[in-house]
Amino acid sequence: MNTTLVVMAAGMGSRFGGLKQAEPVTEDGKGILDFSVYDAKKAGFSKVVFILREDMADDFRRLIGDRIAKTIEVEYVMQDTSCLPAGRTKPFGTGHAILCCRDKVHEPFAIINADDYYGSNAFYDMHKHLSQAKNGEYAMVAYELGKTLSKNGTVSRGVCEIKDDRLVRLNEVTKITPEGTYEENGKVTTFPMDTLVSMNLWGLTPDIFDILEVEYKKFLETANLMKDEFYIPLVVSDAVAAGRATVQVYHNADRWYGITYREDLPEVKEAIGGYIHDGLYEGI
């Protein structure tokens, strides 16, 4: 069965500054996305769909998309911003971004963040799952918290509650420090470093679009449209709670790398440079 990789690339990266998806991590100008697409294609994915904003589309194509299109089939989806209320410029979030793909994606698909490095093993697990998945049989790759933290500031992570390798609930926790602590209502909690967290690598089947459409209408009717966001993890969690879907969780022991802050770049460059030196990316 064909599988598609959907890349959420509409964010500009306010904490990083600028189009961080295009930031080179190698001397010859390749970015994290080059390596994610390489890993996905090698694992069996046959197409990539990039979700962009109209105002960044030309730069993205020139800096990234045209190069990647030489190696795999590429399509583009623009996240609609005409629905935003006056005064809001930020799109409505990841759930809305995925819903915008409805006319382009008709097969099981994985979604990733454009500025995250997930490692090759994650894509093998995801492609194997999706190539056999029936509607409602979703998947997620979970990482150990300690292997996802930034030395340069706080991060947000989806903390997983898992039973028998199935996702029960996902709790979004913000402002987790490099030491794995966070504060809520004056109470400081420390997570064990092996706590499993979501890094937005989901595997979904096309029935998710019907679910998203219904939930998005509810969002528009009940949310504070000036600040709230429509998140894909929340939609999936609600579908699980309602018995409409299951989520198989794949525990990945690899280290995750991302560029949340500009100061994260040297570590990412060093890590990917090491993988290239070890022969993991021959011919890229």
Could you explain how this protein is built, in words?
By secondary structure, this protein is an alpha/beta fold. Strands 1, 2, 3, 4, 6, 7, 8, 11 and 12 form a 9-stranded mixed sheet that branches. A two-stranded antiparallel ribbon has the order 5-13. Strands 9-10 form a two-stranded antiparallel sheet. It has one domain (4-141, 197-277): Spore Coat Polysaccharide Biosynthesis Protein SpsA, Chain A. Helix 5 (208-222) packs across helix 6. It is globular. The chain has helices at residues 32-43, 57-68, 94-99, 120-130, 208-222, 232-241, 265-277; strands at 4-8, 47-52, 73-78, 109-113, 116-117, 137-144, 155-163, 166-176, 181-184, 187-190, 196-204, 246-252, 257-258. 40% of the residues are buried. Helix 2 (57-68) links the parallel strand 2 and strand 3 (73-78). It is built from 7 helices and 13 strands.
Layout of SSEs?
Elements: E1 4-8, H1 32-43, E2 47-52, H2 57-68, E3 73-78, H3 94-99, E4 109-113, E5 116-117, H4 120-130, E6 137-144, E7 155-163, E8 166-176, E9 181-184, E10 187-190, E11 196-204, H5 208-222, H6 232-241, E12 246-252, E13 257-258, H7 265-277
Parallel strand pairs: 1-2, 1-4, 2-3, 6-12
Antiparallel strand pairs: 4-11, 5-13, 6-11, 7-8, 7-11, 9-10
Output the structural class: alpha/beta
Q: Indicate the CATH topology.
A: Spore Coat Polysaccharide Biosynthesis Protein SpsA, Chain A
**What gross morphology would you assign?**
globular
Helix/strand order: EHEHEHEEHEEEEEEHHEEH
Give the % helix: 25-40%
Overall radius of gyration: 18 Å
Cα-to-Cα separation, first versus last residue: 25 Å
Number of β-strand runs: 13
Return the CATH architecture.
Alpha-Beta Complex
The CATH superfamily title: Spore Coat Polysaccharide Biosynthesis Protein SpsA, Chain A
How many domains is the backbone divided into? 1
Q: Could you tell me the mean pLDDT?
A: 93
List unreliable stretches of 5+ residues.
13-17
Largest sheet: 9 strands, mixed
Strand content: 25-35%
CATH class group: Alpha Beta
Number of helices: 7
